[in-house]
Amino acid sequence: MNLGKQYVLYLFRWQLSSPILAGVLILMSNQNQWTATIVANLIGGLVFFWIDKYIFRNSIRFPLWEVQEDIKCVDCGQLTRGYRLVKTNNYDRTHDKSPEFRCERCSRNKLQRLKDEGIEI
Ligand SMILES: [Zn+2]
Fold first, then answer.
1. CA of 60 to the centre of ligand 1 (A)
2. Domain boundaries, the chain
3. CA gap 115, 79 in Å, rounded
4. Distance CA 109, CA 93 (A)
5. Distance in Å, CA 84 to ligand 1 centroid
6. Taking the complete model, does pTM exceed 0.85, yes or no?
7. How far is it, in rounded angstroms, from Cα 17 to Cα 49?
8. How confident is the model over 9-30, as pLDDT tens digits?
């Protein structure tokens, strides 16, 4: 989800809290207004925690790379800084049991092979 869409969804979600607030204030009109507002916000929090979690679930910008110092490149054996592509929109090695790191040159070659296979970057 891009930021613009996320923002519009978030503003719309805030509007959804209006009926809860208004409804509780009407139903509890014989109570103290502060008490009614606290109850309304408690109900809102119980509901919107899950909706907000949904809205912000994918705020990571892809592609996601992992970088580690002093690794041995799996392709050429060079001891250097290593790169590993972890996740894109249609590629996921988040839970890879034996992650493979490559030097910059080999990781660039590997990325080209993945692109040829249809990975979206
Ligand atoms: Zn290498």
1. 27
2. 3-55, 64-116
3. 26
4. 18
5. 12
6. no
7. 12
8. 899 999 999 999 999 999 999 9
